[in-house]
Amino acid sequence: MFASINGVRIYFDIEGSGYVPDGAYMRHRPVCFAIHGGPGSDHADFKPWLTPLSEHMQIVYMDLRCNGQSERVDPATCTLEQLTDDIEGLRQHLGFDKIILMGHSFGGMVAQVYATRYPESLDRLVLVCTAPSHEFYQAALKFAERIGTPEQIKVIPELFEGRIQDDEHLVRWWDICYDLYFHNHDEQLMWETGNRPIGSLEVANYTFKHFMPHYDVRPQLPALQVPTLIVGADYDWITPLSQAEEIHSLIPNSKLVVFHESGHMPFIEEHQDFIDELTDFLIRVPQHEAWKQERQQSVAEFQGDLALIALHSISEPMSVTGIPGQWAPLDADQPGLTLTASASDELTVDGQMIEGTITLEADVTTVRISDTLTAVATTQPGSNHLLSIYDAEADAIHSFKGIDSFAYDRKWVIKGKFVKGDNDRTMAFAHVDDAEGNLRYHQSPGDISFTIEDKIFAFTPFLSSGSLIVIFGDQSNGKSTYGLGRMLVVTPDTDGGATLDFNRSFLPPCAFSPHFNCPFPPAQNRLPFEVTAGEKQVI
């Protein structure tokens, strides 16, 4: 596809859908612009290597002006600033809001300049095997002296000083030097990837001769606020690891990932690891951060865990200290309560004043007592008639500073299997506030088996509001994490698979309020090692 951008015919290609079905809704996916290396190459460098990312985002491949299938114009117009203006122009032309920008090699240099010129257009930045200044060239020559042949060392300056005479000369240069770009020499792979791009000698010569000697974005990088992933490789000769480390030292809020078995193109040589790292940074970590933010907000809501100031067992008609009205249980096997009140009590449900007797459906009906106080009928296994009192101005809410947690780590996303049992099966759980030896029986329709370090474990979950909840313990409890243990929601797949994402291990309600009566992890749910993922403690 082509678009007229800043008066030049620019080629672009799009892979992946921008909107995908998600249940009864359509979900928007992020957009990633992929900017190729060079100068004088094109977007074919990335294909098919980035294709797995299209399962999570829409990828826009772009051939920079004078490169690939884009229009050949005066190379003097191909300044790094103009190339960034073209990226911004294409973004606007396609109607995108903030984008992810990924640049490799020379494309990473363009991406850095873009980030300094159009920071408001960026959601995230990915810099793959690139450099912050023209000084990379001297570092590259030193690296080549260690690993290159005499012939390679002799001809390297011909390209990087803009002295390639014609296409035949360019082909000869690549024949001599191409294996420098790879750590593992797969001749077939190297031949295929090297022949795919449409070369552009004129812009390569002009850029290396006139623009590259002046390239230095280092003074501007410390001002960047965009989350940035920097990728380096141990065997990258042309933009050595020192360049990635320098970028990392200059950009706040950046992360450096080093590939140890790759040359200049880790997205080829360590393909799956590269895809995993990018998916973590671009998709999983943002999703995890959003989940953490939701958790922080939910526990501090007007009926969040922090707001619970009392829990009463209503075994007979009774008054509750400090709360108007008369509260009574429904039948023994029927969850819920009744409330009898007069207009003078000023109790309301859905804005309507209570006069007389009403039924409070468990975990549904909210009674407003005052501007900050509310009451809800609730249940626990063995206790159908409980009354929870919440205060939106509780001391615990005002002193709450957040939830400390571990950083996201995909090694703690464990594939398991849900072994379905009898839907009516119940399992015994001891609870914090119950007398020793007293057990409550929760519905538990199966077990979850999984393997960690070649050892098989099985969790017994309980069913709550249609979800399978695991209360588990591990060796971090009482040290870096909450002493009782933590909880995890597990949703089995239709084929019986069950993913345990320990990154979403959350603190039980009793970590936020002493009025909750939490279950203890049963013996089979206690792991003999530390789970360094998920929530740690209330701050």
From TrEMBL:
AB hydrolase-1 domain ranges (all copies): 35-270
Pfam families with a match to the protein in the record: Abhydrolase_1 (PF00561), DUF1684 (PF07920)
Alphabetical list of InterPro entries matching this protein: AB_hydrolase_1 (IPR000073), AB_hydrolase_fold (IPR029058), DUF1684 (IPR012467), Peptidase_S33 (IPR002410)
Isomerase is among the record's keywords: no
GO biological process: proteolysis
MF (Gene Ontology): aminopeptidase activity
Presence of keyword Hydrolase: yes
Highest rank taxon of the organism: Bacteria
Keywords: Hydrolase
Family assignment from sequence similarity: Belongs to the peptidase S33 family.
Name of this protein: Proline-specific peptidase
Species this protein is from: Fontibacillus panacisegetis
Taxonomic lineage of the native organism: Bacteria, Bacillati, Bacillota, Bacilli, Bacillales
